[in-house]
Automatic annotation (TrEMBL), chains A, B:
<dbReference type="GO" id="GO:0000976">
    <property type="term" value="F:transcription cis-regulatory region binding"/>
</dbReference>
<dbReference type="InterPro" id="IPR001647">
    <property type="entry name" value="HTH_TetR"/>
</dbReference>
<keyword id="KW-0238">DNA-binding</keyword>
<keyword id="KW-0805">Transcription regulation</keyword>
<dbReference type="InterPro" id="IPR009057">
    <property type="entry name" value="Homeodomain-like_sf"/>
</dbReference>
<feature type="compositionally biased region" description="Basic and acidic residues">
    <location>
        <begin position="215"/>
        <end position="228"/>
    </location>
</feature>
<dbReference type="InterPro" id="IPR050109">
    <property type="entry name" value="HTH-type_TetR-like_transc_reg"/>
</dbReference>
<dbReference type="GO" id="GO:0003700">
    <property type="term" value="F:DNA-binding transcription factor activity"/>
</dbReference>
<feature type="region of interest" description="Disordered">
    <location>
        <begin position="207"/>
        <end position="228"/>
    </location>
</feature>
<keyword id="KW-0804">Transcription</keyword>
<dbReference type="InterPro" id="IPR036271">
    <property type="entry name" value="Tet_transcr_reg_TetR-rel_C_sf"/>
</dbReference>
<dbReference type="InterPro" id="IPR047923">
    <property type="entry name" value="ArpA-like"/>
</dbReference>
<dbReference type="Pfam" id="PF00440">
    <property type="entry name" value="TetR_N"/>
</dbReference>
<feature type="DNA-binding region" description="H-T-H motif">
    <location>
        <begin position="31"/>
        <end position="50"/>
    </location>
</feature>
<protein>
    <submittedName>
        <fullName>Gamma-butyrolactone binding protein</fullName>
    </submittedName>
</protein>
<feature type="domain" description="HTH tetR-type">
    <location>
        <begin position="8"/>
        <end position="68"/>
    </location>
</feature>
Length: 228, 228
């Protein structure tokens, strides 16, 4: 394996371990020692990539930002729905995404800048709404930046309620109901008639993504010895 | 002071201290010892009222449930808006309410049943929507229970985003924008034209409540010796 590939792989092993520990313990109680043990990694390898616990958490937080793209759609409202339903799907299947969302809502994460995910999400959704407006998909009163903030904020709560009540079992239903409540006041009804808001949408989008690396990470015990 | 008054006051002193500690530390890291110190209370007095840390947290969680009533309104959509904007106002001014909301979203609160606030809120908002439907205020497709869940879930996220980005400085603006996005797909426009959704609504409702005990609790050092 080339040196660079190995570095990328080591970084990913560390982030996967960090995500697991942050998700279980929260930011405050998580320790670098436990992340090292989970990753099966030496201190030197970890500190080379992430000098502090905050850097590890920011690494986990930014992983979800790199996953905000979906195949381009002619209808930009559909593309925004796809970004949202894909994210909802990954919350149920991908520990890294789940850890990122939990960190961003962890009010006990003192000293951790949690604004990034909210701002990035607003930027992505806001950008899609801008394009939707240019294409004439939106109702005339909609201000893309304001509406993006409403979408991003309320999604955070919809997923939190689903997590608290059913451990995400009903997340697809809740997201679908929420979108049905919100979108008729954002997009033209002539646009919405051909937008797929159903509970299956997230799964359909993920099946469509070719280069997707959605395999759940193997537990540390099954891995070959760390290369760091 | 009568014995019963003293017990109620002791209970309130303990809950205020617990709210402070839970808000600062989160459920997992909070200790009964720190709550005792903050309350200036003996172990015996505390355990008489709350046998465990979980009981203390459930006590804080249920405090917000007792604050879900507002003056009855002829328009039930306005009454629902008043419950929501009053709660938003209290998030900014009342440490007990803030601690309750944080606990209900604390995913590291292992062993704590966090479903209560979500279910109670849904019941209250759902009940108001049922009445609104009977009075003909709602659009025909609205199912009160589903819509109540959308409202409660998305509010949880709107407040979380405001907390993360601005420490609640922009909460009233975010709540107002969110309601403007959601309500036109719930209530008739003829009803909405006379509903107050402005950023000042929560403050106006609290000023109206006569028997309101919104004074911020005094810090422990200013209190007379504990009576427990």
């Amino acid at each position: 394996m080339a040196r660079q590939d190995r570095a990328i792989r080591t970084r990913q092993t560390i982030l996967t371990a960090a995500a697991k520990v942050f998700e279980e313990r929260g930011y405050q109680a998580a320790t670098i020692t436990e992340i090292l043990t989970t990753a099966g990694m030496t201190k030197g390898a970890l500190y080379f990539h992430f000098p502090s616990k905050e850097d590890l958490a920011l690494g986990v937080l930014s992983e979800q930002d790199q996953r905000l793209t979906v195949p381009a759609r002619a209808c930009k409202i559909q593309e925004a729905v796809d970004v949202i339903t894909l994210h909802a799907h990954r919350l149920q299947t991908n520990p890294m995404v789940r850890a990122g969302v939990r960190l961003s809502l962890d009010q006990q994460a003192h000293g951790l800048d949690r604004t990034g995910p909210f701002l990035n999400w607003s930027r992505v959704i806001g950008g899609l709404l801008e394009k939707a407006r240019e294409q004439g998909e939106l109702l005339p009163h909609v201000k893309p930046a304001e509406t993006a903030d409403v979408i991003v904020g309320s999604f955070a709560g919809i997923q939190a309620m689903s997590q608290a009540l059913t451990g995400y079992q009903d997340l697809n239903n809740r997201v679908s109901a929420w979108l049905r409540h919100l979108l008729p006041n954002i997009a033209l009804s002539s646009v919405l008639t051909s937008v797929d808001l159903t509970t299956q949408r997230g799964g359909a989008v993920i099946a469509e993504i070719e280069d997707d690396t959605e395999d759940p990470p193997r537990p540390a015990t099954e891995r070959e010895p760390a290369t760091g």
